[in-house]
Amino acid sequence: MAAESGVSPQAEYIQHHLVHYNNLGVKQGAIADFSVINYDTVFWSSLTGLIVVLVMWLAARRATSGVPSRFQNAVEMLIDMVDQQARSIVPSEATRKFVSPLALTVFVWIILMNVLDLIPVDLPHQIFHLFGLGEKVGDPLHFHRILPTADLNAPMGMAMGVLLLMFYYGIKIKNPVGFVKELFTAPFHGHGFTAVLLAPANLLLNVIEYAAKSVSLGMRLFGNMFAGELVFMLIALLGGAWTGFNVMSVSLGIGHILAGSIWALFHILIVLLQGFIFMMLTLVYIGQAHEGH
285 with 277: CB under 8 angstroms? Predict the structure, then answer.
C-alpha cells in the first residue's frame, strides 16, 4: 500500500501515529474545526486531570499537624513554591485565593499530561491489538495518540481559558468602563482630539497584545511537545529496522536504545519546564490584568 501510494513505510508509520481517534475518522485539516472531537485527547486529558484532583485530595485528607510524611512534605513544598510565585506576581490577595490553586493545578496537570510522552509510542497500539482492536483502518482505536499536549486543541483551549481570566480580572479590577477605556487610551495617551485619533491604534495594539499572549502560550506548549513526540517516533524507526542478527540491525538496535534513553532523560527536563513556563505565564498574565498602562 505504501509503495502504491508513493509514501515510504517510514513516512506512513509517522503519519499513522500523528492521527487522532476522532468522530470523523480523519486527520483534522484546520487549526480550528469544532466539528472534530479527538476522543483520545479528551480521554487522556480528563484521566490525568482526575489523577491530579485525586492526589491533591489524598494529600489534604492525610495531612497532619505532626511530623509530615514524605508524600505530604512533597506536596507542601510544591504548594509553597507555587504560592511564593503567586505572591510575587499577583498583587491582589483576593485574586490569589483563586489563582494560586489554579496555577498549582495547571502546573501538575500539564506535567502529568506531558509525562505520557515517555510511554513507548507503539505500546498503546500493541495493547489494543491484544484485544483485537484497531487492527484495520476504520476500526475503533486504529488511530490513537495518548499525548494531549501534542494536540493543538488542548494547549490552545487552556490558553483561551487564561485569556478569559485576563478579561475577567481586568474588568473586575478596573470595572467595565475603565477596562474599555484603557483599550482605547493605552499605551499611547493623548488629550482631546489627539486621544480620538490615537484610539483606533490603541485598540488594535491591545487586541494584538491579547491575541499574541494567548496564541504564544498555547503554541509554545504544543510546539515543544509535538517536536518531542516526533523525535521519539524517529527513534522508534531505528528499532523498527530490525531484520535479524546482522551488523546493520544490531547497530541500529543499539542506536535505538542509546538515542531513546538520552532523549528520554533530556525530555524529562522539557516536560517539567513546559509545565513551569505555562504556570508562570498564567500568573504573569493575570497579574498584568491588575495593572494599568
Answer: no
Closest by CA to 41, choosing from 160, 150, 162, is 150
Question: Do 154 and 148 form a contact (C-beta atoms < 8 A)?
Answer: yes
| Cell of residue 89, nine digits | 506576581
DSSP 176-216: HHHHHHHHHHSSS---THHHHHHHHHHHHHHHHHHHHHHHH
User: Nearest 5°: phi and psi at 38?
Assistant: -85, 100
Name the one residue in this structure whose C-alpha cell is 536504545: 257
Phi and psi at residue 190, in whole multiples of 5°?
Answer: -150, 175
Determine the Cα–Cα distance for residues 144 and 124; give it in Å rounded to an integer: 8
Task: Render pLDDT for 216-271 as a digit per residue (tens, 0 to 9).
Answer: 999 999 999 999 999 999 998 887 766 677 777 788 888 888 998 999 999 999 99
Measure the CA dihedral 128/113/155/125, to 10°: -10
Q: How far apart are CA 151 and CA 157, in angstroms?
A: 10
DSSP-based three-state secondary structure for 22: strand
Cβ–Cβ < 8 Å for 52, 109: yes
Radius of gyration of the chain (CA): 24
> How far is it, in rounded angstroms, from Cα 143 to Cα 125?
8
CA distance 260 to 147: 17
Q: Which of 135, 152, 111, 38 is nearest to 268 (CA)?
A: 111
| Structure confidence by residue, pLDDT tens digits, 95-119 | 999 999 999 999 999 999 999 999 9
Catalytic center residues: 216, 220, 224
Q: What does the H/E/C string look like for 217-274?
A: HHHHHHHHHHHHHHHHHHHHHHHHCCCCCCHHHHHHHHHHHHHHHHHHHHHHHHHHHH
Query: For residue 206, how many other CB atoms are within 10 A of its CB?
Result: 17
The one-letter amino acid code at 164 reads L
